[in-house]
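Input/output pair, single chain:
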Amino acid sequence: MLARLRSMVPALLVVLVVAAGMWAVSFPNEPPADFVFINGTEPQSLDPQRVTGQPEGRLVGSLFEGLLRWDPRTLEPRGGLAKNWTVSADGLIYTFYLRPACWSDGEPIDAFGVIAAWRRMLDPATAAEYAYQIWSVKGAKNYSVGLIAKGDFVEVELDGPPVDPQLPFARGRVVRGVLENIDSLDSRDNSSLSREPTREGFSDQWIYTVNGQRYAAASHASTRTGDAIAARCILPDFQTTVGLHAQSDTLTVELQRPTPYFPQLLAFYPLAPVPMHVIDRYGSPGWTSQKHMVSSGPYRLGFRRLRDRIRLVRNDLYWDRESVKIGSIDALAIESSSTAFALFTTGAVDWNTSIPPFAARTLIKRESPELRTSPELTIGFYRINTTRAPLSDKRVRQALSLALDRTDIVQTVFGPGEVPSKSFVPSGIESFTGYIPAATIQENADLARQLLAEAGFPKGKGFPRITLSFNADEGHQMVAELVQAQWKEQLGIDFELVSMEWGAFLHSQSTLDFWIARSGWIGDYVDPNTFLDLFVTGGANNQTGFSSDSYDALIAAAADETDRNRRNNLFRDAEMILMQELPVLPLFVRTSKNLVAPWVRNFHNNPLDIHPLSALDIDSQARDIGRRGGR
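Output:
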């Protein structure tokens, strides 16, 4: 079959990448990896609590073990660090019984370490974009956003040298007590104060009195603070307000409300414990370096070469090491899907996650057995920065959506597989949850022109030239060029296209430093909440500036609702608001496309396109024959 795949690639392209294929599997001083796959781009980080992308998820999900892990075929949660667990009748108390396990440096993993890692994830200083995933834990949200008020029991982290000089990045000394009072920094002059003290967390504008002692932000330690002691932060007391309790091998979790998908969350990589004994010593991101990283999963970090590859090596101290069949894995950071496809045709790559549209169309038509396709709970869309005029005008956003021809985009770029999206929650989720997406997206160029004129831009006149950004990828660029042409033709407005490196692209979205940006979201678990809770006010993954009290209320009500039908109705009402306000422009529902060599075993299609590396195996004899072109 590889020979037939080679016939699809232009001869010159094959010649150019044969050398690259040889380069991809070996280095002068390094033996070739047992398994090589295309990861798509240079990972932003290897810190599970600091990443959100699929390229990062494939790696950190192999380096770090969660309390639970995915079944590679069904995606049902099964035992990871926890050998088993129980749930109370009311669904509020989970008890996890940990198995004997250790980090790759031999340090034991216990329930106290799990809690310490989750505290780091919730700490506002960590700025974990997925911190909200465990806000269902009692008291977790208040701690995560630092909500404090008079009368609360709080913890004060003091500024100063570390308690243990051997752990320079550990938390400072912590004082606990009742928050008795909050006073302005300078009672003689309140003119500079922007707000009254509220439950909005620690601020450098106020003096906080705890147990009779005054504390002020370390950044404002000066003569103005008087006798106040410098503090790094004041938060709700974690020990007494957050519903996490440990014995050495038992973790008890108290939820704020029943959360049916909580076990699925615990198999999701951001909730995997991280090695606090290493983080406290080397800090972040230093702890993720090749020299210092220790891991808990089936693999450990062998080496990392920026813009090249990451080598994963089987972790001999992993609790389930006997089930891990592949000894070493190379994840290649290749953004060009054409290069990735050509490498696959040479046999240099065992799994390709990035397929150029021209190849995908041909492979689907030929029903290639190497191409594994499956309906996926993934939405491709554009984010709109609603804080910037004229995109802050809902009529402009609606006009942009109405002027799109999604069917043309799908047929031109993707061919068979992708489906034009009429909603934000992907179609197909109903078969798992019963939720029917609010498919209200329309395409009407006449109405689009009318709305744009009402917004002050008849036939596009006066509309500023703004940017449409995307991360470097042939498919993303093709979509952007089609969208650019459609808006020019239908609305008379033009956009500048900007291709960006992955890390810079992610940063631009998280800081709202963009106008319109390509985006996509793969469900973190099989539930409409994983798509709709993205856009609550202030959500770390909102990244549009969108805010709606009605929307927030519906998402909060759905979180408290245990009846599935009523819960789905609340979600549908919320999605209707989202599709009316349009801080995002849904484009298509993705079909997962993976090129998998015939010698790879245990690769299973699933709706989240999750394929644990530790579950894979290789028929070495078939691989050797295939790479020689004998198939």
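Residues 22-26, 188-199 have pLDDT under 50 and may be disordered. The first strand starts at residue 35 and ends at 38.
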